[in-house]
Amino acid sequence: MKKYISKINSHNEWDKLKEIIVGTAKGSLATLTWKKSKPPSKKIMDKAIKLAKKACPKWFYDEVEEDLDNLSKTLKNFGAVVHRPKPFDYSKFYNTPFWMSTSNNCYNTRDLNLVIGNSVIESPSYLESRYYETAALYHIWYKYLKNGFKWVAAPKPILNYNAKLPYFRNENHRILTSEDLKHQRLTGGRLEKLHKLEENEILFEAANTLRMGKDLLYLIYHLVTN
Fold first, then answer.
1. CB 154 within 8 A of CB 121
2. Measured in whole angstroms, how far is the alpha carbon of residue 28 from the centre of its chain?
3. If I label 59, which of 109, 150, 153, 179 is the partner at 20 to 30 A Cα–Cα?
4. Is residue 99 a part of any domain in this protein?
5. What is the tally of structural domains in the chain?
6. Structural contact between residues 168 and 192, judged by C-beta atoms closer than 8 angstroms
7. Does an H or E element contain 182, and which?
8. What is the three-class DSSP state of 31?
9. Which domain holds residue 114?
10. Which CATH number goes with the domain that contains 123?
11. Whole-model pTM?
């Protein structure tokens, strides 16, 4: 059985797949984040934890994990080397001087890890809950490090402000597209709210990047909420 290719070497999204990291849904939980470094009262905390567990039922993520396991088996049958993250306890709170949060999941491994040639770029998300998400892949990167590759981590963001800005200054003056009108019909009148990222510090996610050999296409970030 194949184990490891001597060096990372990936330049685009369409060459024959030789090696891949498939995420895991084990331990996934709804995120709890407070914009303060001190926890709320025990009563509020207990209620929040109960709601988080209810929002992310284990049976649902067990089915997601089953699908990911089957995907991994299929890729292996086609000859690809498949790596899996090592999930940690996402329910544990961590904090900075400015906020506290739990983690969420590690099945979107492409979101924060960008492979360019023989380099891996660890990207800084605008979400506090993703601060340590990439740590679940470190056991993979350290094995490659022995064979020689470049591992770059962008500066950890401070996030002591609201990183999301309204895309439109005044939603009432927003010109609705045909897609907006269709969304309203399907959702009983709700309109998606669009946001963009502040530019106080370095914030981006690797999933916004399309690799095309020596060129990279980057999608300017916008966020959608209901």
1. yes
2. 12
3. 109
4. yes
5. 1
6. no
7. helix 178-186
8. coil
9. 19-156
10. 3.75.10.10
11. 0.84
Q: Is residue 128 part of a domain?
A: yes
- Sheet containing 150-153: which strands, arranged edge to edge? 113-116, 119-122, 150-153
Q: Which residues, 6 or more positions from 103, have their beta carbon under 8 angstroms from its beta carbon? A: 29, 31, 88, 90, 92, 129, 130, 131, 132, 133
Judge residue 135's burial from the number of C-beta atoms within 10 Å of its C-beta, 0-12 exposed, 13-18 middle, 19 or more buried: middle
**Residue whose pair of structure tokens reads 């009983």 in the numeric block:** 188
Per-residue pLDDT of 39-80, as tens digits, reads 899 999 999 999 988 888 999 999 999 999 999 999 999 999
- Helices marked H in 17-147 — which ranges? 42-55, 58-77, 138-147
Let me know if residue 164 belongs to a domain: no
Separation between Cα atoms, residue 140 and residue 106, nearest integer Å: 14
User: Which residue has tokens 């369409």?
Assistant: 14
pLDDT over 70 at 148, yes or no: yes
pLDDT digits (tens, 9 = 90+) for 89-115: 999 999 999 999 999 999 999 999 999
In a domain, 84, yes or no: yes
Q: How far is CA 154 from CA 33, 78, 100, 200, 221, in A?
A: 22, 34, 21, 14, 17
Tell which phi-psi region holds residue 9, choosing left (phi > 0), alpha (psi between -120 and 50) or beta. Answer: beta
